[in-house]
Amino acid sequence: YPGGMSSAENLAVPDCLFCRIVAGQVPADLVAGTDRVVAFRDINPQAPLHVLVVPRDHHADVAQLAAVDPGLLADVVALAHEVAQTEADGAYRLVFNTGAEAGQSVFHVHGHVIGGRRLGWSPA
Ligand code: 5GP
Ligand code: ZN
């Protein structure tokens, strides 16, 4: 596998929901994509704009992606930005829940692109 220490990390994972969406085996409302990343609408939106951006290759979380293929993480960020320009006013929040205790439920890295309304922020 070019540029990787192990091929296993990047193979489509049969039981992974987002690998299945990327492969077209599970339907999704696709918004945008490139040869490396795909954006589709969250099935349970938390804001007028709520899109998930995923790499086509399987990586479990954002830290794994950053360690193994930082350029691919940059592609995720770039597509998130592009979607927010197109679908909202350009202001957005990009969230990577990491770990079950933080609310990660799908272990194929995905950036939540949230926008289209005023987003509150509380440190409490
Ligand atoms: P997490 O909780 O892992 O950060 O985010 C997973 C997200 O995937 C959730 O916001 C959830 O609503 C969304 N989701 C779960 N199942 C599906 C699905 O089958 N299709 C789509 N489009 N989104 C899904
Ligand atoms: Zn996957």
Give structural notes.
By secondary structure, the chain is an alpha+beta fold. It is 25% helix and 20% strand. It contains 3 helices and 5 strands, in the order H-E-E-E-H-H-E-E. It has helices at residues 17-22, 62-68, 70-87, and strands spanning 30-33, 37-41, 49-55, 92-95, 111-115. The protein has a 5-stranded antiparallel β-sheet with strand order 1-2-3-5-4, covered by helices on one side. Helix 2 (62-68) packs across helix 3. It is globular and about 40 Å long. The structure holds guanosine-5'-monophosphate (5GP) and zinc ion (ZN). Zinc ion binds next to helix 1. InterPro entries: Histidine_triad_HIT, HIT-like, HIT-like_sf.
- CA gyration radius, whole angstroms: 14 Å
Largest sheet: number of strands, sense, barrel closure:
5 strands, antiparallel
Mean pLDDT: 92
Low-confidence stretches: 1-8
Structural class: alpha+beta
- The percentage of residues in β strands lies in 15-25%
Helix content: 25-40%
| Second-tier CATH architecture | 2-Layer Sandwich
Query: How many H/I helical runs?
Result: 3
CATH fold naming: HIT family, subunit A
Number of strands: 5
CATH class: Alpha Beta
Helix and strand succession? HEEEHHEE
Domain HIT: 17-124
Active site: 110 (tele-amp-histidine intermediate)
InterPro entries: Histidine_triad_HIT, HIT-like, HIT-like_sf
Organism: Actinotalea fermentans
